[in-house]
């Protein structure tokens, strides 16, 4: 069996094109599994996975839990709001206490960039980054790219637009890395105040006229405006943002072509995208949710196969 080049999934930046190809191939097999009447395989029956979420999450947390259960793993769910973290316990101490209970793999979401890297250096467990601050969200980028791959087949040379709050988005950075690896052309569109400094060095172009950008692209990934991360005002108000950068029927009618529409969620309907676009035939948003389970199953399976575990079945059933 082919193997990943990494022992942890800390970010897309640490992967290569062969890794992504292997993840996609494995996810395609698991997508067949989760669409069967019996959706579980016993592959990771003797493995224990801890989901450590220090930030709120709905889709990512449920998707990881479901992926783990579909693979037959034992699961521990950790919430910082009801833990000793509130008493001053450090991240390392929290994780080491959990590892002392013989946990094999950790899925970590944390508000601090680099937290998953720190854990990988300080513990012997396999670490999967489920989002670290505004840094990376690798599994989201992989499921986004996989959703595009299913519809566009080869992403090499395809034009992919990312619209929205780039500066606060871990999804944007991971998507840029993934799309570059897959040979896509990447363009960003948002208020200049929402662009990180020197973002052009990541092989992207900028277009502040969103209609021009939409005419250029084959697919658009719409990002949420992350008000909770904003310590100052980056634009006047939601109404103006929606008029200039929100995806709606009027803007799509101007481009006179069909494009694929993605959104990683949660969605601020009426701000970055309108409900009729969310529910349109060109929307891949629910496909992204389904693909998230298959992608996370693939990642967990491939990482577990590199560890010193005797998997119940080393082939995908």
Written account of the structure:
- This protein is an alpha/beta fold and 317 residues long.
- It has 2 domains: 12-137 and 289-306, Aspartate/ornithine carbamoyltransferase (Rossmann fold); 138-287, Rossmann fold (3-Layer(aba) Sandwich), CATH 3.40.50.
- The chain has 11 helices and 9 strands.
- It has helices spanning 17-34, 59-70, 91-99, 115-122, 138-152, 170-181, 210-216, 238-245, 249-255, 275-278, 285-306; strands at residues 48-53, 74-79, 105-110, 126-132, 159-163, 185-189, 204-206, 219-222, 260-262.
- Strands 7-6-5-8-9 form a 5-stranded parallel β-sheet, with helices on both faces.
- Strand 5 (159-163), helix 6 and strand 6 form a beta-alpha-beta unit.
- Helix 5 crosses helix 11.
- The longest helix is centred in the C-terminal third of the chain and has 22 residues, at 285-306.
- The mean pLDDT is 90.
Summarize the structure in short.
The chain has 317 residues and is of the alpha/beta class. The chain is 38% helix and 14% strand.
Biggest sheet: strands side by side, in what order?
A: 7-6-5-8-9
In percent, how much strand structure appears in the residues? 5-15%
**How many E-type strands?**
9
CATH topology tier name of the largest domain: Rossmann fold
Oligomer: single chain
Question: What structural category characterises the helix and strand content?
Answer: alpha/beta
How would you characterize the largest beta sheet? 5 strands, parallel
Uncertain segments are none
Q: Rg from C-alpha positions? A: 20 Å
- Euclidean distance between termini CA atoms: 14 Å
Spatial shape: globular
Give the SSE order as H and E letters. Answer: HEHEHEHEHEHEEHEHHEHH
Number of domains: 2
- Level-2 CATH architecture of the largest domain: 3-Layer(aba) Sandwich
């Amino acid at each position: 069996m082919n193997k990943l080049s990494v022992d942890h999934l800390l970010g897309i930046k640490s992967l290569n094109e062969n890794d992504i190809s292997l993840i996609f191939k494995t996810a395609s097999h698991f997508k067949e599994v989760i669409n069967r009447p019996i959706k579980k395989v016993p592959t990771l029956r003797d493995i224990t996975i801890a989901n450590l979420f220090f930030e709120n999450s709905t889709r990512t947390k449920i998707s990881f839990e479901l992926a783990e259960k579909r693979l037959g793993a034992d699961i521990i769910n950790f919430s910082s709001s009801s833990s000793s973290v509130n008493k001053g316990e450090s991240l390392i101490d929290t994780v080491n206490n959990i590892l002392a209970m013989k946990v094999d793999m950790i899925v970590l979401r944390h508000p601090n960039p680099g937290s998953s890297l720190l854990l990988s250096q300080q513990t012997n467990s396999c670490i999967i980054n489920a989002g670290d601050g505004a840094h990376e969200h690798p599994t989201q980028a992989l499921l986004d790219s996989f959703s595009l791959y299913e519809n566009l087949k080869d992403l090499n040379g395809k034009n992919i637009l990312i619209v929205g709050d780039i500066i606060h988005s871990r999804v944007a950075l991971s998507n840029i890395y993934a799309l570059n690896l897959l040979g896509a052309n990447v363009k960003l569109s948002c208020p200049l105040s929402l662009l990180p400094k020197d973002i052009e060095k990541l092989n992207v172009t900028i277009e502040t006229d969103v209609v021009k950008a939409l005419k250029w692209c084959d697919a658009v990934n719409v990002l949420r405006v992350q008000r909770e991360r904003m310590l100052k005002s980056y634009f006047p108000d939601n109404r103006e943002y929606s008029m200039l950068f929100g995806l709606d029927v009027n803007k799509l009618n101007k481009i006179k072509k069909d494009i694929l529409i993605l959104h990683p969620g949660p969605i601020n309907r009426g701000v970055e995208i309108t409900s009729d676009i969310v529910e349109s035939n060109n929307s891949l948003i629910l496909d992204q949710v389904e693909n998230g389970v298959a992608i996370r199953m693939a990642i967990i399976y491939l990482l577990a196969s590199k560890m010193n575990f005797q998997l119940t079945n080393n082939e995908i059933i």
